[in-house]
């Protein structure tokens, strides 16, 4: 048990150190959603207000609508960033070192997930603080209620990154991840526009958005920010998280997974 | 401790009547009753055709409703929702105001260019005063000596002496004046102009224009910024102004006349009323068919409540 906790501490510390030493990464992670909030949302300001959809009780402006989606964006990009650093670790050999530890492989991978999620959550709270100063303020209880939602969503998206990292052969292939995973996941979700808006142009697109696990994660965060539970969104996010985790474990299993094919 | 006991005794002695906001729905010919505590519609009461202006008698035992397309003012028992009788109102009554004597109703007759004065006890018309074309906004000074009618097409505020029931002044305002209120104990008269996009403030003693408030909502075309109904807080330091199809309510410093804030509400916000402690403001949003509740201290919209089609007027029943 002690060994397991030591491993957890070591992995989290390593990620934290890496994060602290790469200030540029922190700033970049913060600037991205802020640009969306202050530039993109300004262009779509909806000064006349967006129609009321739960959990909102009244009309809101677009800036308010996209904040939960941008929290999700931070988690999504960080999940993928973590996948990138896993590929880097594998190329550098430190991954092999980690996986040769006598501890169960699932535990080691889970520790990686916890570490990257902790950093993502920290970034989301920093973003929420800047958004608060910008004038987008949630109910006080919402800032507390969103913590478990961020952890669940962070682990789900981190698990997706983990599964993908077992697929990527080289660092250069990361651009493919951007094109084929991050962008479709982000744009085919409720992060930027509500489902009813999507349905106005295409019901198929609406259905794809509804099935996207990232949509579920964003909606879970959106409700939590207003201190309201969204059990279906939580259920689907947990299910998706378990699926991606199983896929990652399978991918990292030297006997069966993708690593074997890479030789 | 004594004070606590006294207040407890008072609380126990007072019947627990729920505070309500009554909203006229001009397309549904109904009134939606909102419970202030739960912020939910508890009753829907049928009325005459196209109900618009609404006000309660001083003791809240009667509610007066302008049923514009029925060409009458209806008198309703608020307990039962039954129409007690109709009052002769002249053609197309849109807005009215109850004189402080709790007896005389001053009614703007939009199609007839007159202001009709009705005695609610004898149920008779006691005067008809010729005013400008399409009269709309109505106000009576707190001392009851002056009544105001605003006419939408003539673009004037008409000053009526309530004793002689004759006009004693006419003052020009910006295009399509909609609503009038006496402010600061009757020293000032505020008149909103829908097309002009302004509120004109008059000194009541001299009937001279004192100031003008203009509005500008970021990201909204100026044509959509159309001031209509407005209300002032208890201390009369802050005014809330409904800005029509701009979907915003402006927050105005009533002492400096500066616009301090804009609050997003439902579509085409028209009129408004406070709850009894003036901590909540209820705005009627015609196009979206709802009522937005504003937290007055925080200046934030907290909820929009679905009511009937095209909500128009609102009145408090404590």
Would you kindly provide a written description of the structure presented here, covering whatever features stand out?
The complex is a heterodimer of chains A (263) and B (318). Chain A is mainly α and 263 residues long. In chain A, 77% of the residues lie in helices and 0% in strands. Chain A is globular. In chain A, 40% of the residues are buried. Chain B has a domain at 18-44 and 223-318: YVTN repeat-like/Quinoprotein amine dehydrogenase (Methylamine Dehydrogenase, Chain H, 7 Propeller), CATH 2.130.10. In chain B, strands 3-2-1-28 form a 4-stranded antiparallel sheet, with no helix packed on it. A 4-stranded antiparallel sheet of chain B has the order 4-5-6-7, with no helix packed on it. A 4-stranded antiparallel sheet of chain B has the order 8-9-10-11, with no helix packed on it. In chain B, β20 (230-232) and β21 form a beta hairpin. In chain B, 48% of the residues are buried. The A-B interface holds A 45, 47-49, 52, 57-61 and B 217-220, 224, 246-247, 264-267, 288, 292-293, 301-304.
Helix content of chain B: under 10%
> Which class of secondary structure composition applies to the elements of chain B?
mainly beta
The count of β-strands of chain A is 0
Instruction: Report helical residue fraction of chain A.
Output: over 70%
For the sheet with most strands of chain A, the description reads: none
Question: What is the gyration radius of chain B calculated from CA atoms?
Answer: 19 Å
Mean pLDDT of chain B: 91
């Amino acid at each position: 048990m002690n060994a397991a906790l030591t491993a957890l501490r070591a992995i989290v510390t390593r990620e934290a150190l890496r994060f602290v030493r790469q200030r540029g990464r922190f700033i970049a992670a913060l600037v991205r959603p802020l640009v969306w909030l202050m530039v993109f949302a300004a262009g779509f300001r909806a000064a006349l207000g967006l129609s009321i959809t739960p959990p909102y009780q009244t009309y809101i402006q677009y800036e308010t609508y996209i904040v939960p989606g941008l929290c999700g964006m931070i988690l999504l990009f960080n999940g993928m960033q973590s996948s990138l650093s896993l590929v880097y670790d594998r190329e550098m050999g430190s991954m092999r070192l980690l996986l040769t530890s006598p501890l169960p492989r699932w535990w080691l991978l889970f520790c990686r997930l916890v570490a990257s999620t902790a950093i993502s959550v920290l970034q989301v709270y920093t973003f929420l603080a800047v958004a608060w100063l910008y004038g987008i303020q949630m109910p006080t209880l919402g800032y507390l209620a969103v913590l478990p939602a961020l952890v669940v969503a962070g682990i789900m998206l981190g698990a997706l990154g983990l599964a993908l990292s077992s697929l990527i052969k080289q660092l250069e292939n990361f651009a493919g991840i951007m094109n084929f995973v991050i962008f479709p996941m982000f744009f085919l979700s409720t992060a930027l526009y509500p489902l009813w808006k999507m349905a106005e142009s295409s019901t198929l697109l609406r259905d794809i958005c509804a099935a996207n696990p990232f949509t579920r994660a964003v909606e879970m965060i959106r409700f939590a920010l207003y201190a309201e539970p969204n059990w279906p969104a939580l259920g689907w996010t947990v299910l998706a998280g378990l699926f991606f985790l199983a896929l990652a474990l399978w991918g990292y299993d030297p006997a069966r997974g993708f690593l074997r094919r890479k030789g | 401790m004594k004070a606590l006991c006294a207040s407890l005794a008072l609380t126990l002695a007072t019947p627990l009547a729920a505070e309500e906001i009554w909203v006229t729905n001009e397309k549904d010919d109904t009134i939606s009753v909102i419970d202030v505590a739960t912020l939910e519609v508890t009753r829907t009461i049928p009325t005459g055709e196209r109900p618009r202006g609404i006000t309660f008698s001083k003791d809240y035992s009667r509610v007066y409703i302008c049923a514009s397309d029925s060409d009458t003012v209806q008198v309703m028992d608020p307990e039962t929702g039954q129409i007690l009788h109709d009052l002769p109102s002249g053609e197309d009554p849109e807005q009215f105001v109850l004189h402080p004597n709790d007896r005389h109703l001053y009614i703007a007759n939009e199609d007839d260019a007159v202001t009709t004065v009705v005695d609610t006890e004898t149920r008779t018309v006691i005067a008809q005063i010729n005013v400008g074309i399409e009269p709309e906004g109505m106000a009576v000074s707190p001392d009851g000596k002056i009544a105001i009618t605003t006419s939408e097409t003539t673009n004037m505020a008409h000053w009526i002496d309530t004793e002689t029931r004759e006009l004693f002044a006419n003052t020009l305002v910006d295009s399509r004046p909609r609503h009038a209120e006496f402010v600061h104990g009757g020293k000032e008269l505020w008149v909103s102009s829908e097309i002009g996009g302004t509120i004109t403030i008059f000194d009541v003693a001299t009937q001279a224009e004192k100031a003008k408030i203009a509005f500008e909502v970021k990201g909204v075309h100026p044509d959509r910024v159309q001031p209509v109904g407005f209300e002032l807080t208890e201390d009369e330091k802050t005014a809330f102004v409904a800005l029509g199809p701009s979907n915003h309510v402006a927050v105005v410093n009533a002492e400096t006349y500066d616009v301090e804030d804009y609050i997003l509400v439902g579509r085409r916000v028209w009129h408004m009323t406070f709850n009894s402690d003036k901590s909540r403001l209820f705005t009627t949003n015609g196009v979206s068919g709802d009522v937005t509740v504003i937290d007055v201290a925080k200046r934030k919209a907290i909820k929009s409540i679905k009511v009937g089609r095209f909500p128009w007027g609102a009145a408090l029943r404590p």
